[in-house]
Amino acid sequence: MKDIIKEVSVYCKEILTSGKCASLPFHNLTHTEEVVDGVKKICEEEGITGNDYEILIISAWFHDTGLIQKYAGHEEVSISFAKEFLQVKGYPQDDINQIVACIAATKLPQNPTISIAEVLCDADLFHVSKTFFMLAHLISFTVNYFFAKSGKPNLVSLLPTLNGTM
């Protein structure tokens, strides 16, 4: 179980840190990691384990990968990425079908068709309930904007620019 989750996380991190996904202020690697953590927390509270847990974690990793190609309808692209990757790995088709249903359920307005998909939907929107959600993302977007403008690779190298010493 853990091997496929590890492989999926590596693959999805690659997608989410490249191309268009890397520059998105919301649906990026940080958001996906928050959704994965949210799924883990909900599963723990609800006693969801085994195969359902694995399906939910895999679904969480893949759910926004389609944004690398398009915004509207990205869920369909995410589903294609998940199906292709998992079929190559020899993952059971019944489980792939449940992953497809979970990812499809995250399209707004959310419409889960299987009970475990409700967990992913809740985890996907959990971040909006956090205190200072918008402020945190505004700060993140602003910092990323200054990184891009300065040509500096990280915050430490940007500090002299912000202090006006460069």
Please give a structural write-up.
By secondary structure, the protein is mostly helical. Helix content is 69%, strand content 0%. It is built from nine helices and no strands. It has helices at residues 2-16, 19-23, 29-46, 50-62, 74-88, 93-105, 117-126, 133-150, 155-162. The longest helix is centred in the first third of the chain and has 18 residues, at 29-46. The termini are far apart.
Could you give a short description of this structure?
This protein is 69% helix and 0% strand. It is an all-alpha fold.
Layout of helices and strands, plus pairs?
Blueprint: H1 2-16, H2 19-23, H3 29-46, H4 50-62, H5 74-88, H6 93-105, H7 117-126, H8 133-150, H9 155-162
Helix pairs in contact: 1-4, 3-4, 3-7, 4-6, 5-6, 6-7
Name the features.
mainly alpha; 9 helices; single chain; disordered C terminus; 166 residues
Strand % is: under 5%
Order of helices and strands: HHHHHHHHH
Which secondary-structure class do the elements indicate?
mainly alpha
Main β-sheet description: none
**Number of separate helices:** 9
Portion in helices: 55-70%
Distance between the termini: 51 Å
